[in-house]
Amino acid sequence: MKHTNWDDLRLLLLIVQEGALRSAARKAGLSPATLSRRLDDLEGALGQKVVERYQGGCVPTAFGAGIIAWAGQMGEIALEIERTRDRQDAHAASGIVRINTDEWLSYFLTTRFARFHDKYPNVEVEIVTSHRPYSLAQREADIAIRPFRPEQLDLVTRRLGALSFGLYCSREVAARHADALARRDWASLPFVGFDEPRAEFQSDRWLRALPGAPAPWMRCSYGLGILDGVAHGAGLGVLATFLATDQQNLVAAIPHIPELDQDIWLSMHSGLRKSARIRAVVDFMGEVFSEYRQRGG
Fold it and tell me: SUPFAM superfamilies of this UniProt entry (predicted)?
């Protein structure tokens, strides 16, 4: 038997948990073709098939069931090792970590970072919000979280997940304009959007192309201004969908606008990847986005 790659065993566990290659690939952040190749590699190393692949999903073979049981135990051991490392890192990590991101992601992070301080009390976090990406090469920031993948060769990048958007209004607006919303009579509804200098933002272009919709009567220079306007009854506006769970007063007129989906990428300078404080923040953000994906984000 050839050397077995532990990462391939972890992928096998994910395939069994999901029951199908496509959903397992999506959860692993891989293409179905790549995941299928990794499964081929594992079966080649083990010398036998571990799952039978059918159109409706994947079923473990008798041999595979034994491997999966062992892999599950290995996974538990690996998790315990990681927990031990994390407890040590909590004491070793210290200093300031500067994160640069845009408005929606800044809100996303600041509303989810509280428990980080409990885990890493000696690490301070600065979240710097800007439309313009800060230079990681010139150390204007340690980490960037952006809806695009940087192309600089000296950066380490990681896809965290995807941000989705919908069209929302307040409960008061939903009740007052219930008939127009049910008919999607956009011409009869008030809207909130970006001001003229930001009218080329993808979300605002979509809003202004909505059939029959008037131009936003309230216009803001920043995204959280749109959130405030929508939440307080000024009209309908395009918002990140995670706000629906954070803001109890929001009602979705269009719950998901697929063409506005954005892949979210974390990047940092390659020279920082061994830093304990940086690793602590990166690992924590990975957990946060993983939880967001599991809740359907």
Answer: Periplasmic binding protein-like II, Winged helix' DNA-binding domain
